[in-house]
Write a structure and sequence with these properties.
This protein has 286 residues and is an alpha/beta fold. 32% of the residues lie in helices and 15% in strands. The strands form three sheets. The protein has a five-stranded mixed sheet with strand order 5-3-4-8-9, covered by helices on one side. A two-stranded antiparallel sheet has the order 1-2. The chain is globular, with a radius of gyration of 23 Å.
């Protein structure tokens, strides 16, 4: 009879230990590769947003205002809504241009009518299948946010309608009340900040951004004590009447911060080595 080969319990245990050791050694490389892919996607998102902003500028002769206002000066709509028709057809689902035509720009972004375009809606599997087989069935698109506004590292249901890409807003910034033209920018375009990546996401249609005053208290995501304080107050229930409010730069991709400049380039800054005061300086147009 042929000899039968059987593994002993000891041999099985040794094999398991070897496999676990290999997994332990290979996991960091796999994790880094996955994070690099997410960073690449985030950078590409910001580039596509930059292209849409430049297309808007080419059409109107200026960048969009940070937000539109009503007759009393109350903010209505974000620049993110205003540039929807100016995205490249490959950057977002073309259906979003149809959505833009339905948005009531003379009403607040979160009016009873407009909120349907930014509110997260939980779909049943049947609804999902129906929408993908018949896009005209009326189902919301991409859970109601253009995918180009979504950071790959934010994936909960609530965050699929929120964005971390924020314009610098102020009288001496590209984001102002009237919309800045290229001729108004006196600094080199590749050194003038247009958008930053901030850790606390906001509803993509809301006129919420990074103001010049925010630089006074802004922190990097590695300032753990202050970051914890901000998150604790931001997500407190019941809501706090006087929460700590700070803008947190970076945080979505470990120790990396992505910044979009007016010329369309996206630069990655690592290890929090770029002083926040320098970012503030680079946000000035003159």
């Amino acid at each position: 009879m042929p000899r039968r080969f059987a593994m002993t319990w000891f041999e099985i245990l040794v094999s398991i230990v070897i496999l676990l050791g290999l997994m332990f050694l290979l996991y960091p490389a796999f994790r880094d590769q996955r994070e690099n892919a997410r960073c690449f996607q985030c950078v590409n998102n910001m580039r596509q947003i930059g292209i849409a902003l430049r297309n808007y500028h080419n059409h109107f002769g200026s960048f969009p205002p940070a937000y539109t206002v009503d007759e009393t000066g109350k903010p209505l709509h974000s620049w993110r809504t205003l540039i929807l028709p100016y995205f490249d057809s490959k950057a977002i689902d073309p259906k979003w241009k149809e959505v833009y035509a339905k948005i009531r720009l003379d009403e607040p972004w979160d009016s009873e009518y407009n909120i349907q375009f930014s509110k997260y809606i939980e779909h049943t599997p049947e609804e999902e299948r129906k929408y993908h087989s018949d896009p005209d069935s009326g189902q919301p698109f991409h859970h109601n946010m253009p995918s180009v506004y979504g950071c790959p590292n934010f994936g909960s249901s609530d965050e699929t309608t929120k964005t971390v890409y924020k314009m610098i807003v102020g009288n001496n910034a590209v984001g102002n009340g009237h919309g800045t033209s290229m001729t108004e920018i006196k600094r080199p375009l590749d050194k003038t900040v247009l958008l930053v990546e901030a850790a606390l996401p906001v509803p993509w249609m809301s006129p919420s951004d990074f103001t010049e005053d925010d630089f006074k208290t802004a922190i990097y995501a590695n300032d753990q004590e202050k970051v914890s304080e901000v998150y604790r107050d931001a997500y407190a229930y019941p809501p706090k009447t006087d929460p700590v409010k700070r803008q947190i730069l970076g945080g979505g991709h470990g120790r990396q911060l992505h910044i979009l400049f007016v010329d369309g380039t996206v630069k990655t800054y690592r290890d929090w080595k770029l002083p926040i005061s320098e970012i503030e300086s680079m946000s000035h147009i003159r």
